[in-house]
């Protein structure tokens, strides 16, 4: 093995001379979060502004947040949870930015009605954002003193977690590297704030301004994967669909199928379950969004899917509860049956891309404040978008992203969506680790088992679901002999990998060779990174049209009196609490204007803000 690695190393160093070989992996929290999951979250540290002092000793907080969204990274201050002690408000940790900071008042008029999230006034500011020991200074952040979640029943709870921004889209240029805000008091100068993966890219620590994300599943103890500047190739199976929008893509169809063995339904498959208002199957635009929990789909679609399942629409919670006493329930959620989502082919491809979400992942749990005790629910959430809001779309949230890989190269304006593998077997997580860079201009990514012939999807679920014996005379299901073949392949594979398994390499024999490349790659990367750090040149981004990425910002003297909009936090909150709060606060200090980015002028962040989708 060592000699193979050495060979690969030299091969790779030839291949990569002149390139920076690097990506950045974001660590996941051990904790999981409800009340409608539970879900995984990533670990970050927010706060700090002193480059000379250890970040841990500066004001700040270690918090868990959902990866998702653009522009600002959001955190929850203590005051936001005062009224919501009934809920998991701020369960991922709270952060109270120090009282005097370059805050910019921000007034989004609405946040996301697909999960009842609303926010009334927030502050944008620049402070340290530290992930896995790497601090980006003056990172673009939002603190939300007034925010809550109104569940479909009307019950209100606090916001559970903040969010880690995955980048930023510039409608003109594709990639937006930083944000620049004016302040009403010109002597304070402009505020430039950084976006974490953009800064790493500018500093040449990652090869591209991109991310690759798979949420995994808490039920199956299957950790998530989030990489900036790359992705874990072993989290993507089959053909990948692509689209230009950061999150919105056409959904062609929804179906039900069974991956192997007999069907727990009285049919082997169904298509045409995506219904809008009529009974005719249709296609719709959906927003694929890790910040929202459910499958927020047209009511008719949920009704149609539910008609095949042992679920009841609960009039109190307004969710579909599984009928856990119906034997069909256990049969379905422990079988290889799945809900399928069909998307158009990726660029240059001709086949539709179908992402299968096993029902095993759709046995989720509602908890307080939605229900009084843990309740199994099916996460189809009947949702009607707001026709007045062009960004309001049906959504495929975390429930879907348990089974799907999503990634984006902001610069090439390409989002990738593909099938993610199941939890894995024989002590291997998923199909292993094949961390792979995304190159600067990449608009395609590679996946495993593109033609499906290796049956890696089924293999990754082995041991987690139970295939039923084929019903006699079912003509279209795969046969039991086929299954026998698969399991012997799996057994052979795991035997062959016993050495590699120590290094956390994948399970399947065909993967082993590629996985070894991954190991060589990592070793190499470490060396290369050191060298690159030594040679680090000033950031040059000529191809991105950077007339002036960093506007000169006057450093204001500490003795300068704080302006209106730099009110201490408490004041700001108190102000909001009176009868016509927002107007008076906002009028006294001009609303923030996002001047421009490194490329083009941007619209004001408080109206029709694409990042709020
Ligand atoms: C960091 O923030 C603190 C609190 O606002 C402030 O007193 C200090 O001057 C700042 N330090 C730097 C280096 O900006
Ligand atoms: C929830 O938050 C919104 C926005 O701040 C606010 O208008 C609403 O009154 C809050 N609802 C409750 C019940 O607190
Ligand atoms: C802030 O940015 C604007 C737009 O680029 C510029 O005109 C202005 O001079 C800047 N102000 C300061 C104080 O740098
Ligand atoms: C779905 O129905 C809504 C509400 O009637 C309508 O506004 C929308 O255009 C429909 N979408 C499609 C794709 O038919
Ligand atoms: C459904 O999920 C709950 C909570 O994770 C779990 O306890 C239960 O065993 C699951 N049911 C089945 C049949 O898998
Ligand atoms: C893609 O799916 C749609 C909807 O199911 C179907 O009408 C179309 O024929 C499919 N296209 C291909 C190339 O399979
Ligand atoms: C990406 O494209 C730009 C031109 O748009 C080019 O200057 C740059 O070298 C390309 N990067 C790589 C790694 O090929
Ligand atoms: C952060 O931004 C402020 C201006 O808003 C600037 O004075 C300071 O030097 C920046 N800090 C770092 C570490 O870049």
TrEMBL record:
Polar residues: compositionally biased ranges: 476-491, 580-591
Transmembrane region(s): 503-524
Annotated stretches, region: Disordered: 467-493, 533-613
Localization, UniProt: Membrane
Signal peptide start-end: 1-22
Gene3D superfamilies reported for this sequence: Acid Proteases
Composition bias, Basic and acidic residues: 595-613
Major site of localization recorded for this protein: membrane
GO cellular component, one term: cell periphery
Protein name per its UniProtKB record: Acid protease
Lineage summary: Eukaryota, Fungi, Dikarya, Ascomycota, Pezizomycotina
């Amino acid at each position: 093995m060592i000699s193979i690695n050495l060979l690969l190393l030299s091969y790779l160093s030839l291949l990569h001379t002149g390139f920076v070989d690097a990506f950045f992996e974001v660590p996941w929290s051990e904790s999981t979060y409800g009340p409608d999951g539970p879900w995984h979250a990533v670990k970050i540290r927010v706060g700090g502004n002193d480059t000379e002092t250890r970040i841990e000793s500066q004001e700040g907080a270690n918090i868990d947040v959902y990866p998702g969204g653009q522009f600002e990274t959001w955190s929850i201050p203590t005051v936001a949870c005062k009224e919501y002690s009934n809920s998991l408000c701020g369960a991922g940790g709270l952060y109270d930015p120090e009282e005097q900071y370059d805050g910019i008042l921000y007034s989004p008029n609405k946040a996301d009605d697909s999960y009842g999230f609303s926010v009334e006034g927030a502050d944008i500011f620049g402070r340290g954002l530290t992930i896995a020991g790497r601090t980006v200074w003056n990172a673009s952040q939002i603190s939300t003193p007034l925010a809550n979640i109104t569940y479909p029943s009307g019950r209100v709870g606090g916001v559970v977690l903040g969010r880690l921004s995955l980048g930023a889209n510039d409608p003109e240029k594709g990639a937006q590297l930083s944000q620049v805000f004016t302040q009403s008091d010109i002597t304070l100068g402009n505020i430039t704030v950084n976006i974490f993966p953009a800064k790493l890219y500018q500093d040449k620590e990652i090869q591209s301004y991109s991310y690759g994300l798979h949420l995994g599943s808490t039920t199956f103890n299957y950790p998530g994967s989030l990489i900036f500047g790359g992705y874990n190739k072993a989290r993507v199976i089959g053909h990948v669909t692509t689209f230009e929008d950061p999150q919105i893509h056409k959904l062609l169809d929804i179906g039900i199928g069974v991956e192997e063995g007999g069907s727990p339904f009285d049919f082997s498959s169904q298509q045409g379950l995506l219904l809008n208002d009529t009974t005719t199957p249709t296609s719709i635009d959906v927003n694929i969004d890790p910040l929202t929990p459910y499958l927020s789909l047209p009511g008719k679609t949920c009704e149609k899917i539910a008609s095949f399942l042992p679920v009841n629409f609960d009039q109190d919670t307004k969710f579909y509860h599984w009928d856990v006493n119906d034997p069909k329930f256990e049969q379905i959620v422990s079988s290889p049956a799945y809900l399928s989502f069909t998307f158009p082919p990726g660029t240059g491809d001709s086949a539709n891309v179908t992402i299968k979400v096993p029902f095993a992942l759709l046995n989720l749990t509602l908890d307080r404040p939605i229900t009084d005790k843990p309740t199994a629910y099916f996460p189809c959430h009947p949702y009607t978008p707001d026709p007045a809001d062009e960004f309001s779309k049906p959504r495929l949230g975390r429930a879907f992203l348990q089974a799907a890989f999503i990634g984006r190269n902001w610069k090439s304006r390409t989002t990738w969506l593909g099938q993610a593998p199941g939890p894995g077997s024989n002590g291997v997580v998923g199909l292993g680790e094949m961390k792979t860079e995304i190159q600067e201009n990449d608009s395609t990514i590679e996946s495993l088992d593109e033609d499906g012939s290796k049956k890696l999807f089924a293999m990754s679920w082995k041991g987690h679901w139970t295939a039923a014996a084929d019903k006699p005379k079912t003509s279209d299901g795969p046969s039991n002999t086929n299954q026998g073949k698969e399991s012997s392949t799996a057994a052979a594979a795991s035997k062959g990998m016993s050495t590699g398994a120590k290094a956390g390499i994948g399970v399947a024999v065909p993967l082993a060779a590629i996985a070894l490349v991954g190991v060589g790659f990592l070793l190499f990367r470490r060396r290369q990174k050191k060298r690159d750090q030594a040679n680090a040149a000033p950031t040059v981004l000529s191809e991105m049209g950077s007339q002036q990425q960093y506007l000169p910002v006057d450093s204001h003297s500490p003795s300068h009196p704080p302006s209106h909009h730099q009110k201490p936090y408490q004041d700001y909150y108190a102000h909001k609490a009176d009868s016509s709060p927002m107007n008076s606060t906002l009028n006294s200090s001009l609303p923030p204007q996002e001047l421009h980015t490194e490329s083009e002028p941007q619209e004001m962040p408080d109206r029709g803000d694409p990042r709020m989708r």
